[in-house]
Design goal:
Strand content: 5-15%
Number of helices: 21
Bound molecules: adenosine-5'-triphosphate
Strand order of the largest sheet: 4-3-2-5-6-1-7
Protein backbone atom coordinates (compact mmCIF):
# COMPACT_ATOMS: atom_id res chain seq x y z
CA UNK A 1 0.00 0.00 0.00
CA UNK A 2 1.47 3.34 -1.06
CA UNK A 3 2.21 5.93 1.59
CA UNK A 4 0.04 8.47 -0.22
CA UNK A 5 -2.95 6.11 0.01
CA UNK A 6 -2.53 5.82 3.78
CA UNK A 7 -2.24 9.61 3.99
CA UNK A 8 -5.48 10.15 2.09
CA UNK A 9 -7.24 7.68 4.37
CA UNK A 10 -5.87 9.52 7.42
CA UNK A 11 -7.04 12.85 6.06
CA UNK A 12 -10.58 11.49 5.62
CA UNK A 13 -10.63 10.41 9.25
CA UNK A 14 -9.29 13.78 10.42
CA UNK A 15 -11.98 15.50 8.41
CA UNK A 16 -14.60 13.38 10.24
CA UNK A 17 -15.80 11.34 7.27
CA UNK A 18 -17.92 8.94 9.34
CA UNK A 19 -18.30 5.99 6.92
CA UNK A 20 -15.48 5.09 4.56
CA UNK A 21 -16.44 2.58 1.91
CA UNK A 22 -13.42 0.74 0.54
CA UNK A 23 -13.96 -1.19 -2.59
CA UNK A 24 -11.16 -3.70 -2.83
CA UNK A 25 -10.71 -7.44 -2.97
CA UNK A 26 -7.51 -7.67 -0.93
CA UNK A 27 -8.64 -7.14 2.67
CA UNK A 28 -5.14 -7.82 4.01
CA UNK A 29 -3.82 -4.73 2.21
CA UNK A 30 -6.67 -2.64 3.58
CA UNK A 31 -6.23 -4.01 7.11
CA UNK A 32 -2.57 -2.93 6.95
CA UNK A 33 -3.57 0.56 5.85
CA UNK A 34 -6.21 0.81 8.61
CA UNK A 35 -3.73 -0.30 11.28
CA UNK A 36 -1.20 2.23 10.05
CA UNK A 37 -3.75 5.03 10.16
CA UNK A 38 -5.18 3.97 13.50
CA UNK A 39 -2.09 3.13 15.52
CA UNK A 40 -3.75 4.54 18.63
CA UNK A 41 -7.32 3.60 17.84
CA UNK A 42 -9.26 0.60 19.01
CA UNK A 43 -10.05 -1.53 15.94
CA UNK A 44 -13.09 -3.80 16.13
CA UNK A 45 -13.92 -6.09 13.26
CA UNK A 46 -17.15 -7.66 12.08
CA UNK A 47 -16.92 -10.66 9.80
CA UNK A 48 -20.08 -11.58 7.96
CA UNK A 49 -19.66 -15.28 8.74
CA UNK A 50 -17.96 -15.19 12.15
CA UNK A 51 -19.40 -12.14 13.87
CA UNK A 52 -17.03 -10.23 16.13
CA UNK A 53 -13.39 -11.09 15.42
CA UNK A 54 -10.11 -9.88 16.80
CA UNK A 55 -8.80 -7.30 14.30
CA UNK A 56 -5.16 -8.31 14.82
CA UNK A 57 -5.33 -12.11 15.08
CA UNK A 58 -8.61 -12.60 13.17
CA UNK A 59 -9.73 -15.17 15.72
CA UNK A 60 -13.49 -15.32 16.33
CA UNK A 61 -14.55 -13.62 19.59
CA UNK A 62 -18.32 -13.82 19.57
CA UNK A 63 -20.91 -15.05 17.14
CA UNK A 64 -23.39 -12.29 16.30
CA UNK A 65 -25.11 -10.61 13.39
CA UNK A 66 -24.38 -7.11 12.18
CA UNK A 67 -27.21 -5.53 14.11
CA UNK A 68 -26.04 -7.09 17.38
CA UNK A 69 -22.46 -6.14 16.60
CA UNK A 70 -23.33 -2.50 16.01
CA UNK A 71 -25.44 -2.29 19.16
CA UNK A 72 -22.59 -3.81 21.10
CA UNK A 73 -19.89 -1.50 19.79
CA UNK A 74 -21.65 1.73 18.89
CA UNK A 75 -20.82 3.47 22.15
CA UNK A 76 -17.14 2.49 22.20
CA UNK A 77 -16.39 5.80 20.53
CA UNK A 78 -17.21 7.60 23.82
CA UNK A 79 -14.33 5.84 25.54
CA UNK A 80 -11.59 6.05 22.94
CA UNK A 81 -11.10 6.57 19.24
CA UNK A 82 -12.66 3.51 17.58
CA UNK A 83 -12.54 2.03 14.11
CA UNK A 84 -15.41 -0.31 13.27
CA UNK A 85 -14.26 -2.49 10.39
CA UNK A 86 -17.18 -4.19 8.64
CA UNK A 87 -16.36 -6.85 6.06
CA UNK A 88 -18.62 -8.14 3.28
CA UNK A 89 -21.73 -6.56 4.75
CA UNK A 90 -23.07 -5.19 1.43
CA UNK A 91 -26.07 -7.54 1.66
CA UNK A 92 -27.16 -5.74 4.87
CA UNK A 93 -26.78 -2.17 3.74
CA UNK A 94 -30.36 -1.72 2.64
CA UNK A 95 -31.73 -3.09 5.92
CA UNK A 96 -33.55 -0.20 7.68
CA UNK A 97 -32.33 -1.23 11.16
CA UNK A 98 -28.71 -1.35 10.01
CA UNK A 99 -29.12 1.98 8.25
CA UNK A 100 -30.43 3.56 11.47
CA UNK A 101 -27.58 2.18 13.54
CA UNK A 102 -24.95 3.32 11.07
CA UNK A 103 -26.59 6.73 10.91
CA UNK A 104 -26.52 7.02 14.68
CA UNK A 105 -22.80 6.28 14.80
CA UNK A 106 -22.12 8.65 11.89
CA UNK A 107 -24.10 11.49 13.48
CA UNK A 108 -22.40 11.03 16.83
CA UNK A 109 -19.06 11.15 15.10
CA UNK A 110 -19.94 14.36 13.31
CA UNK A 111 -21.75 16.28 16.05
CA UNK A 112 -20.59 14.93 19.40
CA UNK A 113 -17.18 16.23 20.48
CA UNK A 114 -16.72 13.50 23.07
CA UNK A 115 -17.30 10.73 20.53
CA UNK A 116 -15.01 9.39 17.84
CA UNK A 117 -15.79 6.31 15.77
CA UNK A 118 -15.14 5.75 12.09
CA UNK A 119 -16.83 2.96 10.18
CA UNK A 120 -14.92 1.18 7.44
CA UNK A 121 -16.95 -0.91 5.04
CA UNK A 122 -14.78 -3.33 3.08
CA UNK A 123 -16.42 -5.07 0.18
CA UNK A 124 -15.94 -5.78 -3.48
CA UNK A 125 -19.52 -4.73 -4.10
CA UNK A 126 -20.58 -1.17 -3.46
CA UNK A 127 -24.05 -0.69 -2.06
CA UNK A 128 -24.98 2.82 -1.01
CA UNK A 129 -28.51 3.41 0.21
CA UNK A 130 -30.00 6.86 -0.31
CA UNK A 131 -30.28 7.38 3.47
CA UNK A 132 -26.57 6.92 3.99
CA UNK A 133 -25.35 8.64 0.85
CA UNK A 134 -24.33 11.82 2.64
CA UNK A 135 -22.33 10.00 5.29
CA UNK A 136 -20.42 7.66 3.03
CA UNK A 137 -17.14 8.44 1.33
CA UNK A 138 -16.13 5.92 -1.31
CA UNK A 139 -12.42 5.45 -1.10
CA UNK A 140 -10.82 4.16 -4.25
CA UNK A 141 -7.44 2.60 -4.04
CA UNK A 142 -5.88 4.20 -7.08
CA UNK A 143 -4.24 1.90 -9.60
CA UNK A 144 -0.47 2.34 -9.74
CA UNK A 145 0.81 5.06 -12.05
CA UNK A 146 3.49 4.33 -14.64
CA UNK A 147 6.27 5.37 -12.29
CA UNK A 148 4.79 3.33 -9.43
CA UNK A 149 4.62 0.26 -11.68
CA UNK A 150 8.23 0.91 -12.60
CA UNK A 151 9.24 0.86 -8.95
CA UNK A 152 7.17 -2.28 -8.20
CA UNK A 153 9.10 -4.07 -10.95
CA UNK A 154 12.44 -2.66 -9.77
CA UNK A 155 11.70 -3.80 -6.19
CA UNK A 156 10.80 -7.25 -7.45
CA UNK A 157 14.04 -7.49 -9.43
CA UNK A 158 16.05 -6.54 -6.36
CA UNK A 159 14.15 -9.02 -4.17
CA UNK A 160 14.75 -11.84 -6.64
CA UNK A 161 18.31 -10.78 -7.25
CA UNK A 162 18.06 -10.91 -11.02
CA UNK A 163 19.35 -8.60 -13.75
CA UNK A 164 16.88 -7.15 -16.24
CA UNK A 165 17.71 -4.63 -18.95
CA UNK A 166 16.26 -1.16 -18.47
CA UNK A 167 14.62 -1.29 -21.89
CA UNK A 168 12.69 -4.41 -20.93
CA UNK A 169 11.58 -2.87 -17.64
CA UNK A 170 10.26 0.17 -19.50
CA UNK A 171 8.53 -2.04 -21.99
CA UNK A 172 6.74 -4.26 -19.49
CA UNK A 173 5.88 -1.28 -17.28
CA UNK A 174 3.45 -0.09 -19.94
CA UNK A 175 1.99 -3.57 -20.38
CA UNK A 176 1.07 -3.60 -16.68
CA UNK A 177 -1.08 -0.48 -16.86
CA UNK A 178 -4.59 -1.06 -15.56
CA UNK A 179 -3.60 -3.70 -13.00
CA UNK A 180 -3.25 -3.28 -9.26
CA UNK A 181 -0.14 -3.93 -7.22
CA UNK A 182 -1.26 -7.40 -6.15
CA UNK A 183 -1.93 -8.48 -9.72
CA UNK A 184 1.37 -7.06 -10.96
CA UNK A 185 3.29 -8.99 -8.31
CA UNK A 186 1.40 -12.17 -9.12
CA UNK A 187 2.27 -11.93 -12.80
CA UNK A 188 5.90 -11.07 -12.06
CA UNK A 189 6.11 -14.17 -9.88
CA UNK A 190 4.61 -16.27 -12.62
CA UNK A 191 7.04 -14.90 -15.22
CA UNK A 192 9.95 -15.47 -12.87
CA UNK A 193 8.95 -19.04 -12.08
CA UNK A 194 8.55 -19.71 -15.78
CA UNK A 195 12.17 -19.08 -16.70
CA UNK A 196 14.03 -17.80 -13.64
CA UNK A 197 14.24 -14.32 -15.14
CA UNK A 198 12.16 -11.56 -16.70
CA UNK A 199 12.73 -11.03 -20.40
CA UNK A 200 11.09 -9.79 -23.59
CA UNK A 201 9.10 -13.01 -24.05
CA UNK A 202 7.33 -12.35 -20.78
CA UNK A 203 5.49 -9.44 -22.36
CA UNK A 204 3.18 -11.91 -24.04
CA UNK A 205 2.60 -13.69 -20.75
CA UNK A 206 1.82 -10.36 -19.09
CA UNK A 207 -0.69 -9.46 -21.77
CA UNK A 208 -2.36 -12.87 -21.48
CA UNK A 209 -2.58 -12.65 -17.69
CA UNK A 210 -3.76 -9.08 -17.88
CA UNK A 211 -6.50 -10.14 -20.23
CA UNK A 212 -7.53 -12.74 -17.65
CA UNK A 213 -7.71 -10.19 -14.84
CA UNK A 214 -9.70 -7.75 -16.93
CA UNK A 215 -12.00 -10.54 -18.06
CA UNK A 216 -12.54 -11.66 -14.48
CA UNK A 217 -13.43 -8.15 -13.44
CA UNK A 218 -16.42 -8.65 -15.75
CA UNK A 219 -16.42 -4.98 -16.70
CA UNK A 220 -14.43 -4.86 -19.91
CA UNK A 221 -13.21 -7.32 -22.46
CA UNK A 222 -9.96 -7.07 -24.38
CA UNK A 223 -10.70 -7.87 -28.00
CA UNK A 224 -8.08 -9.71 -29.99
CA UNK A 225 -8.17 -9.11 -33.70
CA UNK A 226 -6.06 -9.24 -36.81
CA UNK A 227 -7.94 -6.79 -39.02
CA UNK A 228 -6.46 -3.50 -40.10
CA UNK A 229 -7.53 -0.51 -42.12
CA UNK A 230 -6.66 -2.19 -45.45
CA UNK A 231 -9.27 -4.84 -44.70
CA UNK A 232 -12.05 -2.29 -45.05
CA UNK A 233 -13.37 -1.92 -48.56
CA UNK A 234 -14.63 1.61 -49.21
CA UNK A 235 -15.67 3.97 -46.37
CA UNK A 236 -12.97 6.30 -47.64
CA UNK A 237 -14.16 9.44 -45.83
CA UNK A 238 -14.25 7.58 -42.56
CA UNK A 239 -10.83 6.04 -43.14
CA UNK A 240 -9.29 9.41 -44.03
CA UNK A 241 -10.77 10.93 -40.89
CA UNK A 242 -9.38 8.11 -38.76
CA UNK A 243 -5.95 8.41 -40.38
CA UNK A 244 -5.89 12.09 -39.37
CA UNK A 245 -6.81 11.27 -35.77
CA UNK A 246 -4.19 8.52 -35.73
CA UNK A 247 -1.55 11.14 -36.57
CA UNK A 248 -2.69 13.24 -33.62
CA UNK A 249 -2.68 10.19 -31.35
CA UNK A 250 0.80 9.16 -32.41
CA UNK A 251 2.17 12.62 -31.56
CA UNK A 252 -0.14 13.52 -28.73
CA UNK A 253 2.30 15.53 -26.64
CA UNK A 254 3.32 17.70 -29.56
CA UNK A 255 -0.26 18.00 -30.80
CA UNK A 256 -1.55 19.18 -27.41
CA UNK A 257 1.26 21.72 -27.11
CA UNK A 258 0.34 22.94 -30.57
CA UNK A 259 -3.26 23.44 -29.42
CA UNK A 260 -4.91 20.36 -30.91
CA UNK A 261 -7.69 18.78 -28.82
CA UNK A 262 -7.24 15.20 -27.68
CA UNK A 263 -9.50 13.07 -29.93
CA UNK A 264 -12.56 11.92 -27.98
CA UNK A 265 -14.17 9.39 -30.21
CA UNK A 266 -16.52 8.61 -32.98
CA UNK A 267 -20.05 7.34 -33.42
CA UNK A 268 -20.65 5.07 -36.39
CA UNK A 269 -24.26 4.50 -37.30
CA UNK A 270 -25.51 2.41 -40.13
CA UNK A 271 -26.63 -0.66 -41.92
CA UNK A 272 -25.94 -4.07 -40.45
CA UNK A 273 -22.95 -5.97 -41.81
CA UNK A 274 -21.35 -2.98 -43.50
CA UNK A 275 -18.11 -2.78 -41.56
CA UNK A 276 -18.87 -0.95 -38.32
CA UNK A 277 -17.27 -3.60 -36.10
CA UNK A 278 -14.50 -3.95 -38.63
CA UNK A 279 -13.84 -0.23 -38.31
CA UNK A 280 -13.63 -0.45 -34.50
CA UNK A 281 -10.91 -3.08 -34.86
CA UNK A 282 -9.13 -1.25 -37.66
CA UNK A 283 -9.09 1.93 -35.53
CA UNK A 284 -7.24 0.18 -32.73
CA UNK A 285 -4.80 -1.25 -35.22
CA UNK A 286 -4.27 2.13 -36.91
CA UNK A 287 -3.75 3.88 -33.57
CA UNK A 288 -1.58 0.96 -32.40
CA UNK A 289 -3.43 0.68 -29.08
CA UNK A 290 -5.51 -2.08 -27.47
CA UNK A 291 -9.20 -2.53 -28.18
CA UNK A 292 -11.46 -3.01 -25.17
CA UNK A 293 -15.17 -3.62 -25.36
CA UNK A 294 -17.68 -2.25 -22.89
CA UNK A 295 -20.89 -4.24 -22.62
CA UNK A 296 -23.34 -2.02 -20.75
CA UNK A 297 -25.74 -4.93 -20.17
CA UNK A 298 -23.09 -6.68 -18.13
CA UNK A 299 -22.76 -3.72 -15.77
CA UNK A 300 -26.30 -4.03 -14.47
CA UNK A 301 -26.30 -5.21 -10.88
CA UNK A 302 -28.98 -6.23 -8.45
CA UNK A 303 -28.21 -3.85 -5.60
CA UNK A 304 -29.19 -0.20 -5.47
CA UNK A 305 -26.35 1.82 -6.93
CA UNK A 306 -24.41 -1.23 -8.04
CA UNK A 307 -24.84 -0.60 -11.78
CA UNK A 308 -23.63 2.99 -11.48
CA UNK A 309 -20.69 1.79 -9.44
CA UNK A 310 -19.88 -0.82 -12.10
CA UNK A 311 -20.04 1.80 -14.82
CA UNK A 312 -17.73 4.06 -12.82
CA UNK A 313 -15.31 1.19 -12.35
CA UNK A 314 -15.41 0.18 -16.00
CA UNK A 315 -14.70 3.72 -17.15
CA UNK A 316 -11.93 4.04 -14.61
CA UNK A 317 -10.44 0.77 -15.75
CA UNK A 318 -10.51 1.96 -19.35
CA UNK A 319 -8.66 5.09 -18.25
CA UNK A 320 -6.11 2.96 -16.46
CA UNK A 321 -5.52 0.88 -19.57
CA UNK A 322 -5.41 3.95 -21.81
CA UNK A 323 -4.35 4.78 -24.41
CA UNK A 324 -6.96 2.41 -25.74
CA UNK A 325 -9.99 2.26 -27.98
CA UNK A 326 -13.16 1.75 -25.94
CA UNK A 327 -15.69 0.07 -28.18
CA UNK A 328 -19.37 0.14 -27.33
CA UNK A 329 -21.20 -2.07 -29.79
CA UNK A 330 -24.93 -1.63 -30.41
CA UNK A 331 -25.03 1.37 -28.15
CA UNK A 332 -28.69 1.97 -28.99
CA UNK A 333 -29.55 -1.28 -27.21
CA UNK A 334 -27.50 -0.42 -24.16
CA UNK A 335 -29.32 2.85 -23.63
CA UNK A 336 -32.65 1.93 -25.20
CA UNK A 337 -35.54 4.17 -24.34
CA UNK A 338 -33.61 6.45 -22.02
CA UNK A 339 -35.53 9.62 -21.18
CA UNK A 340 -38.57 8.56 -23.18
CA UNK A 341 -41.34 6.07 -22.74
CA UNK A 342 -39.53 3.55 -24.84
CA UNK A 343 -38.90 1.08 -22.07
CA UNK A 344 -35.79 2.51 -20.46
CA UNK A 345 -35.71 2.45 -16.68
CA UNK A 346 -34.20 4.61 -13.97
CA UNK A 347 -30.98 2.67 -13.85
CA UNK A 348 -30.29 2.90 -17.58
CA UNK A 349 -31.17 6.59 -17.51
CA UNK A 350 -28.68 7.17 -14.70
CA UNK A 351 -26.02 5.09 -16.44
CA UNK A 352 -26.60 7.05 -19.59
CA UNK A 353 -26.21 10.37 -17.75
CA UNK A 354 -23.05 9.12 -16.12
CA UNK A 355 -21.62 8.03 -19.44
CA UNK A 356 -22.50 11.33 -21.14
CA UNK A 357 -20.83 13.34 -18.40
CA UNK A 358 -17.77 11.18 -18.65
CA UNK A 359 -17.52 11.70 -22.40
CA UNK A 360 -18.17 15.40 -22.09
CA UNK A 361 -15.54 15.97 -19.45
CA UNK A 362 -13.00 13.40 -20.42
CA UNK A 363 -9.48 14.56 -21.04
CA UNK A 364 -7.85 11.15 -21.16
CA UNK A 365 -6.59 9.09 -24.04
CA UNK A 366 -9.51 6.67 -24.20
CA UNK A 367 -10.81 6.90 -27.76
CA UNK A 368 -14.45 5.85 -27.95
CA UNK A 369 -15.85 4.00 -30.91
CA UNK A 370 -19.60 3.67 -30.49
CA UNK A 371 -21.47 1.68 -33.11
CA UNK A 372 -25.21 1.53 -33.71
CA UNK A 373 -27.75 0.30 -36.25
CA UNK A 374 -30.98 1.89 -35.32
CA UNK A 375 -30.87 5.28 -33.71
CA UNK A 376 -34.56 6.07 -33.82
CA UNK A 377 -34.87 5.44 -30.08
CA UNK A 378 -31.54 6.97 -29.11
CA UNK A 379 -31.71 10.01 -26.85
CA UNK A 380 -30.98 13.10 -28.97
CA UNK A 381 -28.46 14.41 -26.39
CA UNK A 382 -26.25 11.60 -27.45
CA UNK A 383 -26.05 12.66 -31.02
CA UNK A 384 -25.30 16.29 -30.32
CA UNK A 385 -21.90 17.54 -31.48
CA UNK A 386 -19.39 17.81 -28.66
CA UNK A 387 -20.04 14.36 -27.32
CA UNK A 388 -18.16 12.69 -30.11
CA UNK A 389 -15.73 14.30 -32.48
CA UNK A 390 -17.81 13.12 -35.40
CA UNK A 391 -20.85 11.06 -36.38
CA UNK A 392 -20.58 8.89 -39.50
CA UNK A 393 -23.22 7.07 -41.43
CA UNK A 394 -22.25 3.77 -43.03
CA UNK A 395 -24.61 3.03 -45.88
CA UNK A 396 -24.88 -0.11 -47.99
CA UNK A 397 -21.74 -0.19 -50.16
CA UNK A 398 -21.91 1.55 -53.53
CA UNK A 399 -20.64 -0.11 -56.72
CA UNK A 400 -16.99 0.83 -56.32
CA UNK A 401 -17.09 -0.26 -52.67
CA UNK A 402 -18.63 -3.60 -53.54
CA UNK A 403 -15.81 -4.18 -56.00
CA UNK A 404 -13.24 -3.38 -53.33
CA UNK A 405 -14.92 -5.59 -50.71
CA UNK A 406 -15.07 -8.54 -53.12
CA UNK A 407 -11.39 -8.00 -54.00
CA UNK A 408 -10.39 -7.89 -50.34
CA UNK A 409 -12.10 -11.16 -49.53
CA UNK A 410 -10.86 -12.88 -52.68
CA UNK A 411 -7.30 -11.71 -52.03
CA UNK A 412 -7.49 -12.80 -48.41
CA UNK A 413 -8.17 -16.32 -49.67
CA UNK A 414 -5.68 -16.01 -52.53
CA UNK A 415 -8.33 -16.48 -55.19
CA UNK A 416 -8.28 -13.06 -56.84
CA UNK A 417 -7.14 -12.77 -60.45
CA UNK A 418 -7.39 -10.05 -63.06
CA UNK A 419 -9.94 -11.82 -65.27
CA UNK A 420 -12.70 -11.56 -62.69
CA UNK A 421 -15.25 -9.22 -64.24
CA UNK A 422 -15.94 -6.72 -61.53
CA UNK A 423 -18.38 -4.69 -63.63
CA UNK A 424 -20.68 -7.70 -64.00
CA UNK A 425 -20.44 -8.43 -60.29
CA UNK A 426 -21.15 -4.83 -59.29
CA UNK A 427 -24.26 -4.88 -61.45
CA UNK A 428 -25.65 -8.01 -59.85
CA UNK A 429 -24.89 -7.17 -56.23
CA UNK A 430 -26.79 -3.95 -55.75
CA UNK A 431 -28.23 -3.95 -52.19
CA UNK A 432 -25.66 -6.42 -50.84
CA UNK A 433 -23.80 -5.49 -47.68
CA UNK A 434 -20.18 -6.37 -46.84
CA UNK A 435 -21.18 -9.50 -44.96
CA UNK A 436 -23.27 -10.69 -47.96
CA UNK A 437 -20.32 -10.14 -50.28
CA UNK A 438 -18.01 -12.00 -47.96
CA UNK A 439 -20.50 -14.87 -47.89
CA UNK A 440 -20.58 -14.91 -51.72
CA UNK A 441 -16.79 -15.27 -51.84
CA UNK A 442 -16.74 -17.97 -49.16
CA UNK A 443 -19.49 -20.01 -50.83
CA UNK A 444 -17.88 -19.75 -54.26
CA UNK A 445 -14.54 -20.92 -52.95
CA UNK A 446 -16.12 -23.80 -51.07
CA UNK A 447 -17.98 -24.91 -54.18
CA UNK A 448 -14.80 -24.67 -56.26
CA UNK A 449 -13.02 -26.86 -53.75
CA UNK A 450 -15.79 -29.45 -53.75
CA UNK A 451 -15.82 -29.45 -57.56
CA UNK A 452 -12.04 -29.83 -57.63
CA UNK A 453 -11.40 -26.49 -59.39
CA UNK A 454 -8.23 -24.47 -58.83
CA UNK A 455 -9.41 -21.18 -60.21
CA UNK A 456 -12.73 -19.50 -59.61
CA UNK A 457 -14.48 -17.61 -62.39
CA UNK A 458 -16.86 -14.67 -62.63
CA UNK A 459 -19.62 -17.16 -63.47
CA UNK A 460 -18.95 -19.09 -60.26
CA UNK A 461 -19.23 -15.87 -58.29
CA UNK A 462 -22.37 -14.81 -60.12
CA UNK A 463 -23.96 -18.13 -59.33
CA UNK A 464 -23.33 -17.63 -55.62
CA UNK A 465 -24.69 -14.09 -55.92
CA UNK A 466 -27.93 -15.53 -57.28
CA UNK A 467 -28.13 -18.02 -54.42
CA UNK A 468 -27.51 -15.38 -51.76
CA UNK A 469 -30.41 -13.55 -50.16
CA UNK A 470 -29.02 -10.05 -49.66
CA UNK A 471 -29.74 -7.92 -46.65
CA UNK A 472 -31.84 -5.59 -48.77
CA UNK A 473 -34.30 -8.38 -49.42
CA UNK A 474 -34.31 -9.83 -45.91
CA UNK A 475 -34.34 -6.58 -43.94
CA UNK A 476 -36.14 -4.27 -46.34
CA UNK A 477 -38.24 -2.44 -43.75
CA UNK A 478 -35.44 -2.04 -41.27
CA UNK A 479 -33.19 -0.49 -43.89
CA UNK A 480 -35.90 1.99 -44.86
CA UNK A 481 -36.31 2.89 -41.19
CA UNK A 482 -32.59 3.42 -40.64
CA UNK A 483 -32.40 5.68 -43.70
CA UNK A 484 -35.35 7.80 -42.64
CA UNK A 485 -33.92 8.50 -39.16
CA UNK A 486 -30.51 9.33 -40.56
CA UNK A 487 -32.00 12.00 -42.82
CA UNK A 488 -33.02 13.93 -39.71
CA UNK A 489 -29.58 14.34 -38.14
CA UNK A 490 -26.36 16.11 -38.95
CA UNK A 491 -24.09 13.26 -39.91
CA UNK A 492 -21.19 12.69 -42.29
CA UNK A 493 -21.19 9.99 -44.94
CA UNK A 494 -18.53 7.34 -44.41
CA UNK A 495 -18.31 6.66 -48.13
CA UNK A 496 -17.11 8.83 -50.99
CA UNK A 497 -19.41 9.26 -53.98
CA UNK A 498 -19.55 6.30 -56.32
CA UNK A 499 -17.47 6.47 -59.48
CA UNK A 500 -19.61 3.95 -61.32
P1 LIG B 1 -23.67 -5.30 -37.36
O1 LIG B 1 -24.39 -4.01 -37.34
O2 LIG B 1 -24.54 -6.44 -37.81
O3 LIG B 1 -22.90 -5.58 -36.11
P2 LIG B 1 -21.29 -4.39 -38.70
O4 LIG B 1 -21.52 -3.19 -39.54
O5 LIG B 1 -20.61 -4.22 -37.44
O6 LIG B 1 -22.63 -5.21 -38.56
P3 LIG B 1 -19.11 -6.06 -39.46
O7 LIG B 1 -19.15 -7.02 -38.33
O8 LIG B 1 -18.07 -5.04 -39.46
O9 LIG B 1 -20.53 -5.41 -39.64
O10 LIG B 1 -19.07 -6.88 -40.82
C1 LIG B 1 -19.38 -8.25 -40.90
C2 LIG B 1 -18.39 -8.91 -41.84
O11 LIG B 1 -18.65 -8.45 -43.17
C3 LIG B 1 -16.97 -8.51 -41.52
O12 LIG B 1 -16.35 -9.48 -40.77
C4 LIG B 1 -16.33 -8.38 -42.88
O13 LIG B 1 -15.70 -9.57 -43.24
C5 LIG B 1 -17.46 -8.11 -43.83
N1 LIG B 1 -17.51 -6.69 -44.21
C6 LIG B 1 -18.48 -5.82 -43.89
N2 LIG B 1 -18.21 -4.60 -44.40
C7 LIG B 1 -17.03 -4.70 -45.02
C8 LIG B 1 -16.20 -3.78 -45.71
N3 LIG B 1 -16.57 -2.50 -45.88
N4 LIG B 1 -15.03 -4.21 -46.21
C9 LIG B 1 -14.66 -5.50 -46.06
N5 LIG B 1 -15.39 -6.42 -45.42
C10 LIG B 1 -16.57 -6.04 -44.91
Amino acid sequence: MKRSTVNILASYIDALHPIIYINHFDFKVIDDAISRVGEKAKCVEFNNALGLVDFKTKSPMMECNLEQFLKLTMDDGFEQETFLVLKDVHGELNNPKIISLLKRIAENNLYNDSYSATIFVLSEITVISRELENYITVFDIPLPTTSEIHSIISDFIIDMDIIVEQEIINDITLSFKGLNEFQIRQILNLAYQDGGCIDKDDKLLILKEKEQFIKKSGMLEIVNFTENIEDIGGLENLKEWLARKAKVFANLDKAIKFGVDVPKGIMIIGMPGCGKSLTAKATASLFEIPLVRLDVGRLLGKYVGESEENMRKALKLSEAISPCVLWIDEIEKAFAGVGSDGGGNDVTTRLFGQFLTWIQEKENTVFIVATANDISRMPPEFLRKGRFDELFFVDLPNGEERRKILDIHLKKRKKWHKDIDSIALIKETDGFNGADLEAVVKDTIEMAFIDGKDVITTEDLLKSVKDTKSISSTLKEKIKEIKSTIDKIDIKLASKADIH
